[in-house]
Task: structure prediction
Amino acid sequence: MCLASLSNGPTWLRRPPSAQPAWPVSRLVCGATQTISCRRDDSRRFNQRGIALLRTRAFAAGVAQCVRRSRGLVTMTETAKSLDASLAVHCAALAACRACKLPADVLPIVSCAVRPKAMLVGQAPGQVEAAGGKPFAGRAGKTLFRWLERAGIDEETARQRIYIAAVTRCYPGPSPSGRGDRVPSPAEQDNCSVWLERELQLIRPRVLIPVGRLAIARFLPPNMPLDEIIGRGFEAEHAGGTSLVIPLPHPSGASSWIHQGNHPKLLDRALSKIGSELQKLGIRRGRSAA
Ligand code: SF4
Result:
């Protein structure tokens, strides 16, 4: 659906005559690019009601790429290109990536989220994920989705509404020590960072949940102790703009952090924060359809 099909008074734009928007809402032909401007004193309403709604609907319709302010004008540039379509192209390219020259049967794991507004970034897939092609499908995933349940989001909703990415997307194989999986090499992390950056640019997530130290270090200063960051939210800049980053510890049984001292309380605090932030985005239990 494009904005052209909404221009005859879609319910989400209809208001009583006195509350008609001062900004022009005009037809947008699919495939076209269009600029909509309004006066500065309208910008607030435009932002709160116009852009918020337009962006929500527009992403569904495949429009609304950026918002720019200059000389008292608020300008929204729209392009008729859908987020889901862009993600589909992105995921197809990602699925074909062999940059790290890993064994032929090791394939990148991709997310199936629809119109995501939030992202979760893990470390790397494990053996179960590699076998099933689904992120967080193993034991650590079960724990993670139990945690999200506590935050008010069931697994189905989480998989559909939260884009699940990772620092690297291919199973790195077992650790040489024989305990757990190998930590992806700096070269592999570097190779794979282009995929994450592209996803951040496409999705521009409002909420970002890095899971485990490797993922947390992508967005927050490295070497910050988990005790100081779990349970808190941070504004962080990245390739796709700014997001509220709410880190989680790694849910794998290999991490003993979550069982020590006051850490269960810190985890509870983080989950409650995630729950309320995702709820603001309309992501909550039973809302798997975007
Ligand atoms: S880990 Fe990332 S960069 Fe390396 S082959 Fe897999 S998808 Fe490509």
Notes: The chain has two domains: 3-79, 105-280. The pocket of iron/sulfur cluster is lined by residues 97-100, 102, 108, 168-170, 188, 191-192 (CB under 6 Å). The longest strand covers residues 33-39. The longest helix spans residues 43-61.
